[in-house]
Each structure stands twice: as structure tokens, then as C-alpha cells.
Amino acid sequence: MGERERGGFWVGAAASVFYPLSWLGRRTYLGADKLPATGAALLVMNHVSHLDPPNDAVFVHRNRRVPRFMAKDSLFHVPLFGRMLAGSGGIPVYRGSAEARDSLRAAHQALREGKVVVIYPEGTITKDPTGWPMKARTGAARLALENDVPVIPAARWGTNHIWDGYTKKFHPFPRKEVTTALGDPIDLSAYRGLPVTSALLREVTDVMMREVRALLAGVRGEEPPAEFFRASARGASSDESAG
Q: Which residues contact 182 (CB under 8 A, 6 or more apart)?
């Protein structure tokens, strides 16, 4: 295994918090070698629990990379945690404001600098009652099309059995299985160089999320729904593009 990517003090501080949280589950990693050992990558994931970021951060860190998470800007104002998130390279996502595209600019810059950017295109924990991905925002597609970097689909399942963000139920015992599966880089060559329209962004978003959904189906051993769940009141177009 190659040399670990250096992260600095705040990455170490985050690791000291996230590793113990990840121990709440028995972790299984499938296809971990698909995460590039060096250079930029966009890791596109589903979102089922508030425990996802600690679990996913540990996964990336165990593979000797430093994850740069795109997270709601409000999290950056939480005492200590917000400082840790910002100091470890987190990228604030602004929604419903003139700053909405600033988050994408920061993510573009991170990719140009060869970083691993982790994004949950759904924008929040899925509202699908059965936990499948819902209709996603298009910011991830814009990042994928405007940066010639590997776009890696990933699905994780089991964190929701420990902490259900909607019922607020916490079930640490007995320890649950948490599985993270990565797929091959998504081939977006057919879409590169085309005018970036809303229709194109929607199509590419769905292409990426279908790959994520297929990985999740493999982890769950279930047939996925044919369509993405549509939550009500998803917000305006500025929310949609922020991703």
C-alpha cells in the first residue's frame, strides 16, 4: 500500500472522533481497491444515516486518502465540530442563496488539486421509506462533467440500522453489519464536450445514481425500485444545482 496522503492536525482530530463512531458497526469493504491511490476522484454515494459521514471518512482514510466532504454550511457553525470540518478540508454547501455555486467552485478547486471529494447527491438522508436512493440534485453531475477525474460510485448500507435519522432511534447493540461497496469508474465519455444544459445534468445525475443504486441492490441482495423516490418540497432550482 502506498504512502498515506498527509492531512494535518484537523484531519487527525477528525479521525480521533470518527474511528470510534465507525466501530459501532462491523465494517465490510467491497471493491476498496477501486478508490485511486493518488490523484483526484469524485466519490458519489447514497445517504441513509447521520452516521454515514464518519463511516465513509474512515473508509477513505483507511485507504490512505483524505476525504473532502461536501456538507451543509450550517454544520460549519457547530462549535468545535465546524472548526474540525473546515480544518480537515470540508466544503460547505450553500443552498437557496447567491452563495450556492460557491460550494461547487470550492469542490472544483479540490479536484484540480488532486483531492478525493465525497458527495451525497441526494443532499440529505433519503426519504424513501425503504432506504433506496431518491431523486438526486445535479451538482455532482456538473462536477463530473467539468473535471476529467474518475467518478467512483459507492453504496453503503447498515448505518441506518444503528442510527435512524428520521425516527431518532439509536440501536448500537447488537453490533450491526455496515457494508461499503465501490464500483468501477463511471464512463461519462459520451457526455463530455456537450453543452451543459439542465437536461444533460439531469441525465448524467441519473446515470450516476443508477450505478449507486445497483451497488446498493447487490449489498442488500434485493431488487431495487425502477424509479427514484421523489420527495415533496425539494426546493428551488438553486437547491437542485448545489448538489
A: 30, 31, 32, 34, 35, 152, 153, 154, 215
